Batch of 4 targets.
Target 1
Amino acid sequence: MATEAVQVWAARRNGACMLRVAGELDVATTANALIERATESVRAVPGPVLIDLSALTFIDAHGARALDALIRTPLDGRTAVVRNCPLRIRRLLNVFRVPLDYSSAEDLPAGQTATTALADQVRRARLHARESRLDASGTMARLTDTLIRLASTRERTDLIREQAQRTLADSRAVREQLIYSRRGTAPAPAALPQYALAAEFSAEDARP
């Protein structure tokens, strides 16, 4: 294949040919190379071809076009259908306008009618909707946690600022007290810091 970032192999599973595409589908992946490798892989495995993308870690617009060509092209004379795709990859494919299922009424397995096929599509749509709701719930939970952390940080910041203002006021009061002491005059009571006033009152209370 043209790139070593993508691995393609096929295995028999439940009477079907499971074609696994793993790694990264990017600009280095050409549609012809991907189709050629996939065709070689499924040739030795009988059954309907199901594409498994669960191990696909990355895909860009070029890789999406290659995957689109792979799904549209019959592999060894068989139509391929995507049956397993991570939510993050599905979202990217939706952005690139690459549908994941090209099956039609003519491609239905034996014993499956259009009604059962529609029911299967509805079931998959509900599954995708549930996954989207769970993902949205997780995002909202993370956002709420972030807001709580920001509020807590703001409260701590306000407390630190208030403490700093008190410390600055006490420092000014002590400096004024030192200035008055050097001049030999008594400072005004209002200029004393809170802890100094408390010490003075305690000394007066201790007197007989």
Target 2
Amino acid sequence: MRRAVAALWLAAFGCDRAAPPIPTTVSPEWQDVLRGLHGASGPASPAPDDRAAWESLQAGHEAQLEADAEAALARWGPSVRDRRVGPLHALEVTPRGVRRDGRLVVHLHGGGYTTGSARSSLAGSAAFADATALPVLSLDYPLAPGAQWREVVGAVADALAALDAEGQPLARVALFGESAGGGLAAGATLALRDRGRTLPAALVLWSPWSDVTESGDSYATLRDVDPVYRYDAHLRAMAAAYAAPADQRQPWVSPVYGDYAKGFPPTLVQGGTHELFLSNFVRQVQAIEAGGGEAKLDLYEGMPHLFQRLLPDSAEARLALAKVRAFVDAHVAPAPPGS
């Protein structure tokens, strides 16, 4: 299982640097996975405006992660059905033993704004659904470079507003984002607020890419430690495909630059200390707190990107998922009895 996780990760991302020391302070399961991640090489991202190359990359990404999706369905056993939410297609993931109390989780997948889908990210949405015992609605938002940030953020904001209009109050919705989906979740919430719309009750962000520029201490200090991403080889082109450099500090694109004094939902940010994005996590929480909002930074020793979904039975992932459930239960109230 652990070798399979490492092989799947390398197929999807790849890396091209010497192996850093394996931390002995993480669980034995993760020590095995981290050993398996080293020594591989993966292709660089296409040019930002090469739509054909990005479409080919997306198709390959989906094919590589199909086994991951099937494994998630077998592991967690949810029911899955297609839905339409405003302008977007979605998958509704309903866990075994679901709590039907009027609450809903809306999920935004990762993939650097250029790859990924509700289908290929079932490992995250199914794990979240099982941990919280709540239905999860995973949105297929438009991908860059076919769509840039204004269209993408607008589509997600419109889908959330449509849920509210259709009788699913956002006051009983938790918004969950992974990686780029985490940055998009925070950016779309800022967009809703700036437009005077209703906001979700709470946000849960796993490893959010909440600053798409190469800013923050960890982009330098963890450059050769993160086993998943390099900014020059992977992230720079993804960021440019999503937003022109002049727009990359716009708060809907990079929400670490947002003004949170105007209000924002309680937010849980989870990540690992081996992530290139570590400074994003710290700065995102500090930005919310500086604006008077409530935010919790929940970091895990030695963990890489999206560790919760990659090895969900590890001690680290079990603890993180338990904290997710506690946070959602504390901040997203169920519907009153009889309503």
Target 3
Amino acid sequence: MIVAPDFEPDARALLQKKKNLRLMKKLSPPAREDEMDIRSVTGGVLVQSKDMRDPKELSQIESKVVTERPPSRDEMRAMAFGWKVSNT
């Protein structure tokens, strides 16, 4: 069984020739605010509510800095990258 978001026509044609192989298209349902995000971690599981915030909110972070030294431009870029990676 192969599960994927989609299959290219050439790949589908090739894979359909295989014996006892099933192709399944994975559909991602839209997230609901009340859904829980469940991830496995060493020794257990992490269960937390999904982060439904808009990634565009990151641009507003500069007005919320509470440290003595505000982050540099490079640090802000690194935080923006980390935000995008962790929320995808």
Target 4
Amino acid sequence: MTERKIGRVISWQNLSPNLAIFRVVPDNGCRFPDYCPGQYIALGREDCRLTRKIVLDGKLHTIPDLDEGGKPKVGPVTHSYSIASAPFETERSHYLEFYLVLERDGDGHPGRLTESLFRMNLQLDGKIQYLDRVQGDFTLEKRVNGSGNVLLVGTGTGMAPLFQ
């Protein structure tokens, strides 16, 4: 059974106002599961600004979810993120590395989990949850299937491979 575990962000590097690289290590001497390049893991935090969907003028909008007093509601959010570090780095140094884009919806609101991560203070609260399971079959071995040619194209953060 997959367990929710606690990790700690040990390094954070802003590459731009909307792009960062960060590293996570597991707490309590645990180890991350083995993985192959192209796989992902679910990360989460408890202090995410929650949202709700509404329809205005026939269009779907995501807006901050407010309590009775008009304050933004805060709660847990989990999303899957592609692992950017190589398996040998994780085996040697015990961290997972991620490239993170501060997402924004069509109305300019930041993504719930990415916003929480970008405002995180490592000295006060660098905790992050993760599911102790790595998933995904978007790996070179499974996608190439013996093809003679492979084309890799960078999109988003430039870390996602596309195969042709």
